[in-house]
């Protein structure tokens, strides 16, 4: 009989600060299929499930039409030569699986969560979706009508319009990171466009495969059987992302409804991407500014002033060279200007005053604790590896980032704030 350890509930368990943890990733295994496609995987034999993600260089930056990448990706599962959209959906539902189609700025692909025992039944279907979509005309038409209706509804929402406008203001309306779809863009979609984009960018030898869970004998052989036999002579060329073309004016106000009681406020700037030496310190400074519930923006504008239920800041890394630093809030119309004033006030405080040690330690504990939470389990770990590998980064880059978070001083943050948090370099959008 196995012994159980008795708990003494009169003694408080020891508490370890997240900063003291040695944050490490579990090493992945990697094989190459017959056509040299890499498969990165983590075994977790105690799991009954498998997560499988097949990634292609088919993101938004590869598309000449604003909707080309997203629509191709979304409609690949809407029918193959052998199965209709309904049959595909019914098969996935029958096996209790979940299929996730995504198109990001750089990559696109399909992830699937399933019981390991159902892999032999579902892998052929996934292969069909990725290699043999037929893009039925009726499915394209249905997609166009549905998306246009969603767009009409969304363009009446101040937060959606503000998000679209701030991207356009930062990068320019024709830039891959600044363009936004109009109704006419949905009307101009057609089957040949989608087939051409799929043929050019969903090229199996250019794919990367990530997998975690119950990977038994035969799983890798099945992957090779379906995804390792195609040998294409072409691969999509990596596009050159143009520099941003920001708006001439730093302030933009847009009215949807003259009677609106709320306003969406966006204050943002372009930053260098994740390869820049300041990026990790900027990520830490962002948490101080508006990245958690106790942040400067929340303490001032929510708790003290009562202007909003929530105000947040985030850094979105578009690629190795460009990122966006964004402050976002929905506030009462009458306090929109006052909210912007207080945001800039918090910028100036971080430029002028070192972050107190107690606050900095709290932020470090929060940030590293959050990172630890995102590594809970094999699926989360392989997703982190995916992020690093797709950025051409290694575990050492991740370790350096964690070390920066742990060892950064108030003077380090003051220095980086003086370079990147200057109010005059931010753009402001208000939508009423």
From TrEMBL:
Residues 189-366 form the Peptidase M16 C-terminal domain. GO terms for molecular function: metal ion binding. It holds the Pfam family Peptidase_M16. Residues 75-166 form the Peptidase M16 N-terminal domain. SUPFAM superfamilies: LuxS/MPP-like metallohydrolase. This is Putative Zn-dependent peptidase. It comes from Thermoflavifilum aggregans.
